[in-house]
Protein 1
Amino acid sequence: MWLLALFLVPFLIVVKISLSDGAVSIPPYTPKFDLQAGIAGIKEFIAALDFENYVYLTEDNLYWKSYLSSLKIAFISTCLSLLIGFPIAYAMACSSESWRPTLLMLVILPFWTSFLIRVYSWVGILSNNGLLNQTLLNIGVINEPLVIMNTDIAVYIGIVYTYVPFMILPIYATLEKMDSSLLEAAKDLGCSNFKAFWLVTAPLSRPGVIAGCFLVFIPAVGEFVIPSLLGGSSTSMIGKVLYDEFFSNRDWPLASAVAVILLIILIVPIVLFQKQQQKLQQAAQ
Amino acid sequence: MNQRFSWFNATSLALGFAFLYIPILSLVIYSFNSSKLVTVWAGFSTKWYGALLNNEAFLDAAFMTLKIAFVSSTLATILGTMAAFVLVKGIAFPGRTLFSAMIYAPIVMPEVITGLSLLLLFIAIGADRGMTTIILAHATFSMCFVSVVVSSRLVSMDNSLEEAALDLGCTPLDAFRSVILPLIAPAVISGWLLAFTLSLDDLVIASFVSGPSSTTLPMKIFSQVRLGVSPEINALSTIMIAIVTVGVVVASLVSKRSVINQRKQEQLAAKSTIE
């Protein structure tokens, strides 16, 4: 096996790196196309020859705003997912042993169904004559339909809905391993329920919470499907801007520049996340 | 952790699962609505399912999607398992850290970036865009998920088993086939399933790297959904949800049964050694 691996490795790495390189960075080199003015990515980064597209990006307000609003939307959605996900994970960890596999499966099941379908299902609920408004009108809570569809609120709901399992699972994993005798000890020593939770459960679940937050935040920043289905014209998220720039405006160089900057923004949280995962793995070993 | 089950916990579970499942349920219910208006209930009907079966564009796209998913997930499983071996066995080679970072990066990378950069790569090497490019793209990003799943299994595997096989005269290949493969098989299978569903599900990467003649089902759904709610899509979604649900439930029952069987055998073995 060792020999096999050693012989195969160099060969495979060439294949794999050529594949994953594409995923990690933008191909720096495409001489045949008139794109090279801006296939900017790395080539010009190093050569520092032509920052035209980047200059354009910084001059145009639209891009700044959409980077900022993506970060804002992702941040708020992460907080909301934490607020919703933590109680669920906590309740799952507290439930009896025989129930846990079923509950776990119920959390994972939506994750296996198509993401697009799950986002789409909210369109029917949130739209002006959708399920939610109909119900509320019939009960008499409101007199005229709430406008939720095509606003930022709909985007928050969509992101929280699709990413909340990513929050629940790591938190549940840490809570499940927790030793409940610690809580009993805290209570014996005179802690109130709330204080025991705050002093014992919360710090012990921190690795799970951090992992969950990263898993929600990072993909949410670059989210494209949710804002384009649920958000309105006023919701500008960078994933959507990139997609439009690419497919509607056909400005490929600019789209690449947008992507490179997005990558730079995200590299910090991604690296932090990997560091933290490695630490956890070492701790586990 | 095992505490008394309180009312607070019960409510948060109930609300949480309501939040997760009400949208899906509403989708399923309204797929049986005979009215064209999705929000008005006009009686039970299955006509949208009939309409769906006659819609050739959808059927073509569905078939194409399944083909892509099958090939790309198989490719991803092979590559991903190899990558997992390289990572776990700790073989030293230049660029190892970079390699492991590359395995993890696409998992959290926004799909728009992955899609765009793959497309630029395909253009740079002059590849024709179409089914092949989608397969390659899907294999690339789902390979990472497979390798994570498989490597977590490899880490927990007992190394001495492989060594024993080698000591007893197995060639490395034999040892791999008769010892390691059966041990990691569950992880490889679940990795394959994961890669399959990821590929079925993917919209963004596929729409970047696809050519004019290749439209996958998610792309089809997306272009329809952009125009608003349509009962045909509800019907299609219901079918997909049903397939996934049945698949997941069956898989979990099977794995549960194998765990129980294993326990029984262990108990029997323990008994016989005592006697």
Note: Confidence is low (pLDDT under 50) at residues 1-50 of chain A.
Protein 2
Amino acid sequence: MTAHARPASSTLVGEAAIRARPNVLSMNYVDKVFGRDVVALKDMNLDVNEGDFISLLGPSGCGKSTALRLIADLIHPTKGQIKWANPRAANDLSVVFQEPALMPWATVEQNVYLPFRLSGKPLSAVKSDIDEVLALVGLEKFHGAYPRELSGGMKMRVSIARAMVTYPKLILMDEPFAALDEITRFKLNNDLLALKDKINCTVIFVTHSVFESVFLSDRIVVMAARPGRVIDELYVDEAYPRTETFRTSAEYAAHCRRASDTLKHAMELGQ
Amino acid sequence: MTTVDQNTNLAQPNVVADPEELARARRKRNEKIGQWVLPALVVVLTIIAWDRIVTVNELPHYILPGPDLVLEALIEDWGMLSESLVVTLRITVGALLIAIIGGVGLAVLFTQSRWVEMSFFPYAVILQVTPIVAIAPLIFIYVDNRMVGLLICAWIVAFFPILSNTTLGLNSADHNLRDLFKVYGATRWQKLRYLQLPSALPYFLGGLRIAGGLSLIGAVVAEYVAGTGGNASGLAFRILEASYRLNIPRMFAALLLIAMTGVVIYALTSLVSYLLLRKWHESAIKREV
């Protein structure tokens, strides 16, 4: 596993520290139009830096999922560009969807093996990587289980393990915890931060939830609808690791209030 | 998870077993026994009733033979009937195999190219909706080899459910998984092999169960139309032949063999389906509550 390890990015947070991080990719004046005239995204600019945890926060229809799909290269900009700082390799990018999207016919191990299988690596060569990532998400005893035998939270853990097993530079997460109960969601929030720290990647996280975005991210990009656009960016100037005490702190509440006010403003703009 | 908790509770000595749960367990056990006993009972009663009706009404054997006469014919003509059974089986199994290869092959081709699908799918439908009895005489005019003609007829009847089900299955792979394969730069072949074919498996197996029965029907109908006798004649021809000779017991015996063949084919395809899906597919999993 040490072969994958990258030098840890700065644990400093706040606007100045984030701006000083090396660039991963940038979106420059990106527009996306669906059909003939539905403007899903208008003039989006975003510099994604190494080690960022960026939340895209906004109401339905604000283009946050569209932005994610554009970055994943699943759809292409109508106008503008998305540029990677270094040429993108096959395993530089992973995606986690709102549904776990596991293959029901394959065991947990086979599901996590998928990205390696598609890049032509034999299972024996990556077995230790899979074992380690399954242990990190707390599923070391479930190698041979089928998805139907797992709870919703466990399925999502498998999905996250699959996304992280290749040590990608960038992970895109599209409301991954929206369908889970609150207790499970809190637990997965904590675990996600620990995992991100461990594999040292960059995350772009789409969410509806102010509380989730404040707890997880150091940057919150607030978006408005009709047309989908970025209206503000907030910095959560709180050091990692963040724990349950952060969730109940006055600082957390203050950040949440600020994010809520911005979101309220975004909803008014989108009326 | 809940089942584990319930079990630990039940293991405690002071917990009283729930009468409703006990009744449910009893009902389940009875249903399991009834599933086998009841159909067997119906068969026995039917045979007894059949025998009584024939004896009491003194029906002549060329109108309705009793079960004893049918059994006698089955044993006496076993040499001839078993040969015919092998012929019919060969056509049925051969047609089913070609239907599987052709149906799955065409379905894969259709999902690789929308243009091919749009061009040829209507013709597959036309082939399916035109009654085989109407096409068969033409086939036997143009195809010299009788066996090949029979195979073609049975294939036309059997291949469509496999084609349409497999096409549906290949197209119903999870959309998020498709996106994920794209993100990981999967090739067309990888997408087919690791995503589309496994997704299509339950659909294909559903089609296979229907096609198994249809290939037998196709084989029997084709034999009727082909009609020529000789050594290599199937069960359908034996029925025709016996009817000309008013050998009704032999007709029943041949009919019995065809019906049994159909049941065996259905049981085998169901077994294959169960074995392939039991670990992961909802259709093969027994609900616990």
Note: Confidence is low (pLDDT under 50) at residues 1-10 of chain A.
